[in-house]
Design goal:
Elements lengths: L4 E4 L6 E2 L1 H14 L7 H7 L4 H8 L6 H13 L5 E2 L3 H11 L2 E5 L4 H10 L8 E3 L6 H10 L7 E5 L2 H10 L2 E5 L6 H5 L5 E3 L2 H11 L1
Parallel strand pairs: 1-4, 1-6, 4-5, 6-7, 7-8
Antiparallel strand pairs: 2-3
The structure holds magnesium ion (MG).
The site of magnesium ion has 9 residues, from loops.
Length: 209
Amino acid sequence: MNYQALLFDWSGTLVDDLPPTLHATNEVLREHGVEAMDRETFRHRFRLPYPEFYEDVLPGVAIESLEGTFRSAFNESPKGVTVLPHAREMLEFCCQAGIRCFVLSSMDTGLFMEQAHAFDLHRYFEAIYSGIIDKREHIGSILTDHQLNPATTGFVGDMVHDIETAKHGGIDSIAVATGYDPLERITAMSPTHLYDDLSHFRTDLEKAH
Ligand SMILES: [Mg+2]
């Protein structure tokens, strides 16, 4: 385990935004006369790229027409976004160890920037790729643009799409069970590494450095 660069997903990997995401999704559904989902139903049905999820739950509705409601409901959610335990320590360790850090996230860029600055996490990242609908389409150019060696680069994420993206880019996938996709779905993808949370990954990195 000799990583020189790590790409991080955001939601479910570094921050917990499931409560406001569920709140906002249910507002969008309500607006279209669709019944609200509970947390576990949402986790089972949600997937990336998220337009596929919306085509599933609101077939034929243009995704752009949902974004305004989603964004305002997200910001008005009774439960807000929190930094996941061990996330800050993980980034701090990478910084000390000289491991280059990047963000690759589907989250709306406006929402992402608000959170990253509010939590003072933006400063850990050499570059940020947010608002990326299909991460598989971008992984190749990110590796090229930053001259990242696939052999020493990994993508840390909580969803099947993150593991698929890592495989697509020919890099290691480091899955964490702190996010959206249920554990059995992550396990079925055979990620390179699977951790309960970032503290266990950090422990392994510390041993290697
Ligand atoms: Mg995620």
